[in-house]
Amino acid sequence: MKKALLKDSVKEIKNTYKRFISILLMAFLGVGFFAGIRASSPDMLDTIDQYFAQKNVYDIEVLSTLGLTGEDIDALKQIEGVENVYGTYSTDVLIETEDTEAVAKILPIEDVNQAELVEGRMPETNAECLVEETYLTASHKKIGDTILLQVEDAGEEGVSLQETQVTIVGTARSPIYISRERGTTTLGSGKIAYFMYVPKDNFVSDVFTEIYITVPKQEGVKTGSTEYEETIEVVTERIEAIKEERQQARYQSLIDTANAELAEAEQTFESEKADAEKQLADAQAEIDSGRKELEDGKQALETNRRQVNNQLSEAKKQIEDAEKQIQESEQLLQQQETQAQEGIVQLETAKQEQQANLSKLETGITQIEENIAKIEEQLKQEGITEEQKAVLQAQKEALTEQQKEAETQKQTLQTAIAQIETQIQSIQTELETGKTQLEQAKKTLQTSRAQYETNQAKAQRELSEAQKEIENAEVELQEGEQTLAEKQAEFNTKIAEAEGELIDAREKIAEIERPTWYILDRNSNSGYSSFIKDTENIENLGRVFPIVFFVIATLISLTSMTRMVEEQRVQIGTLKALGYNKFQIASKYILYASLACIVGGILGMMVGFYLLPNIIWSMYSMMYTITNFMITFNWYYAIMGLGLASICIIGATALTTVQTLKQTPAELMRPKAPKPGKRVLLERIPFIWKRLNFSRKVTIRNIFRYKKRFFMTIIGIAGCTALILTGFGIKDAISALLPDQYEKVFHYDMQVSLKNALTEEQIAELIQTIKEKQGVTQVVETYMAGGTLHKDSDQEDIQIIVPGSEEELEKVISLNDVATEEKVTLPKDKIVITDKVAELIGAKVGDTVTLRNSEDEEVQVEVAQIVENYISHYVYMSKQMYESLYGTYETNVLFLQYEGLSEEQENTLSKELLAENGVSSTIFISSIQTVMEDMMYSLNYVVVVLIVSAGLLAFVVLYNLANVNISERVRELATIKVLGFYDKEVYQYISRETVILTAIGILLGLAGGYFLSYFIMGTCEIDMLRFTKDILPQSYVFAALITIAFTIIVNIVTYFALKKIDMIESLKSIE
Amino acid sequence: MAYIEFKNVIKEYKMGEITIKALDKTNFEIEKGELVVIVGPSGAGKTTTLNILGGMDNVTSGSVWVDGKEVSKLKNKELIRYRREDIGFVFQFYNLVQNLTALENVELATQICKDSLSPEEIMKKVGLKDRMKNFPSQLSGGEQQRVAIARAIAKNPKLLLCDEPTGALDYKTGKQILKLLQDTCRKENMTVVIITHNTAIAPMADKVIFFKNGKAEKIEKNENPISIEQIEW
Fold first, then answer.
1. ipTM value
2. pTM score of the predicted model
3. Could you point out which of A37, A659, B10, B31 has its C-alpha 20 to 30 Å from the C-alpha of B106?
4. Is A579's Cβ below 8 Å from some Cβ in B?
């Protein structure tokens, strides 16, 4: 470029700085908005990618219905493209939180899916754990407190924990739970409320519950990207390839183990059976021998009895004989006695004679002796003479002789008496002897008899004892037999039982399910997938919004630059005449446009790349626990945005310049033939045309004259209005969400979850108690559980609601058909689903869908109706249908309605309810609303960004158009000024057109905004939510007012610009 | 006092550091109903004089009187009113509003004036009775200039100012335009000021003012102006 030209270009910018700035602003807004919105999604993806890489989050998860083994891990390690394989455990437990029971997912501290420590420290022993922050808030616990983990008895295959009393040592975030969604469980309320991390060693399990696989991270391949998905797809397919084999292996090993166990059991059974049979046989033999012995004993007893009887009778006979003899002896003895008595009497007589003789003798003797004694005395007397003496002596001797004789006589007598006495004595002795002998015999007899009697008694006793013994033995034997019979029976049952068990075991083996592997990728993680979906939503938003911006910005730049080139026709012609080539001439305008475009674009990028992703992130960070948002300067979008802006703006400039340059210098230097005036269609309707006053006519004709400007203005204003309205529309949709759900659909105030396995009476009692609470007006029984709904390959998490009574349900939940708004009744054999889930899985009324409950039982059901709903997905079915599908119905959730309770009273009610035995948790709508309102509040930022950006755009557009309008018609304006139009009239002359164009633009914009917001809402709608697509009337008003406000500002600026128009200058030159 | 008086009018333009004196103590007078022709070379100050006279520009010093009103002292709004009520302008390039028909262009002027004349009447007078509904682009240069004149005189102004009215026209058409202006002056007793560098037409004027270097160098009164038809150049 020649120096003079360059100078000219720089001066041009200085002179027309307003135009320059407006083009710069266009580029700024276009590029900034484009780059910012477009970069948000990649920035978010970068952030999650980085986060997942840092936390070593799995790429593929393998689950099996029958657990996974070390061999599975080895097999997976062999697969190409697998980096690491981690076998881990997890389990669901019940924990107590502030009077309520909640379910927590226990995760291991592992190299994969690492916990992100927020506060405190990592657990060092099995009795320590990490919890999530919300748990601490909800439970009012703090680090250092302990929690009791109640592991459900899951049988031998389940996972248990070594330590169930664990101390909280810190709080953590989990990369696999980045959103609030924790999944479902078969425990408690059916919803997992928290996760917790414990050391891996704390788990006790035979098999792994999960296998996590990481795939080597490729440079530049981000999670969620197509390349990533493809890589994972390839590895997944390889895993699919070994899946069958591994399933079979696991199945086989289970079968083998079971068979081995069975064989062992059979062996044990057989040996035990043989043992038992032997024992029984022994017992039988014993009984038999016992029986024989008993018989023998009986026989022996009988023999004995006979023998004894014989002996006894013999003895008796002997005794009787002896008695007879004794009797005979007594008779004989009595005869002998009589004889002896007679003999004794004779003898006595004899004796008495003798005695008498004797006595006489003795008297004689005694006289003798006395005579002797008298002689002797005389002898002895002193004085006795010898003669006397000799007479005395001879007397005496005669007397002694007499005495001797007497004595001899006496002796003879005595002998005779003695003889008699001896005779008597001998008779007596004889008699005595006989008597004694008899006595002796009697005594002997008596002894014999006594002995006999003793013997007899003894024998009798012995016999009876023996008899008794035999009888006892018999009883014993009978008992033995009975016992044996019992034993036999027992044995039989036991055998039957054991055989039954064996059969069962065999059947069980036959029934052993083939394990199924589930090979899941990150998309099955609800937090991750909703995050990815959100980034996609933003990406979609980034597709539409910036395009509107770009189109408008381009159109406006085009208009500006065209005008600029046209204004400088003469100069261009002059330069051309002077011999500058086309390129040299065009370069000025291209430089001008490029500078504006590049400077604006770069500024836009700097602001856009920083501001928009941050604002969007600040909103999403409320829903996800990912920190460290990464803002990167996205070269791709930078170049793309700037490139697009350059193509549009510079391209437009080049195009107009080139077109102008085609003309010859002479043509250029001559004024461009003014655009001829034309009649408009309206003039052909004199009825209307005639009624218009002059200035209206002029305005109308002018509007139609500058068609290009007409369309530009309308498109510009319409676009801006549409963008603003969309901003409001999004805000409306978001803020309508809660009222829609909690006023139109749900009318309950509190949801009370009941503990498992309550009896009907307990529930009835509980309901009665609740009904008596202050303010409670309604208690409705329902069954509620988590599950998934499938159709084809689509699946969505849903909540199943089965009312105890449909009439009752109506009081707390309105089921209205989504299309007709009519009330829906639950059919007997079909289900009713909410409309968003219907849309997501593509189900229509009459379609058959698969409903899987939390226990993974699948049923095929037909959709009867689709009902309106705004938050979450629900499946409703009648009690009757539920019972026919699953058998039993159990109330587990109560919906409460109450009136006039303050927040405090609500809390009190909740506390009172939680104190009740059967209540496991309470949720009140007012608290959900608060939480959601907070979340929704953040969305307002985005809306404000949209509105401000759109407003800015509207301003720039209007200002630019006004400028172009003035500059294009400066001659005309100068003319009317010369004619003596007051400033106000001049202004009106122009503004009347602007007003009409703005009005049309606004109307079109409102219509366009309706569709744009409908479209954007459709693409941005979070899966769990259903936005109302109706925009509030006031939003239309606000959108229109904002555009009008900008129009007014621009018009004020225009007013002064018009005032400044130099009539002389404008009219002097040839156009 | 004359109908129009220019007294010691100085007009300076500041172009950066340079000051250009467009008018340097210009003095002249014009009587009511006079047809005045201002002639002179380029840059002599003819157009500046006309602009000041027409209330489109202000003076640096000196005073301008029109019909007893000191135009040079008027404020913006009064100036507009002055233009609106007292002045009719005819330009070299007609400056018709392209989007309005001939009649509408006239109406554009009459609708803002109190004592305006009937546009249709004026159109008849300028000889465009049959062309009223045509757009400027459908008219020849001369016809367009007639429309411009019609627009100027329809306001019934005190003063009709014409800046090179024939500059873009051929000889014959130019003559017809000048005739129209002369007739208007004579018949309506309107004061008409025509700028031209064609001195040949000077005889048609009641007064000819010669401009040179920002000064009215010579003012000639023509006691017997001749009809334009009689002038050849």
1. 0.90
2. 0.64
3. B31
4. no
